[in-house]
Amino acid sequence: MKVMKRTSKTFSYSVFYEQAPEGGYVAFVPALPGCHTQGETLEETERHVKEAIALCLESLAAHGEAIPEEGRSFQGRVTVPVSVPA
Length: 86
What we know:
The chain is α+β, with helices and mostly antiparallel strands. It has one helix spanning about 40-60, and strands at about 15-20, 25-30, 35-40. About 25% of the residues lie in helices and about 15% in strands. The longest helix has 21 residues, at about 40-60.
């Protein structure tokens, strides 16, 4: 049986938080598709998303899959005029 050497590494990802219509917040990690969570407060949501990221990365490592490293990311806002019925 081959024993794999383990090492510890720190990863950093962009997280987007949105206010949920029903209350609380949702968070998602664009670099890790499917990695999302929610919470009642921003603080709770941040704790949850850290746990979700760690679980996602542990699962990738356990299955021998590459752990994505996020490159530079940017966020912007655009304004678009749209004609809508009155």
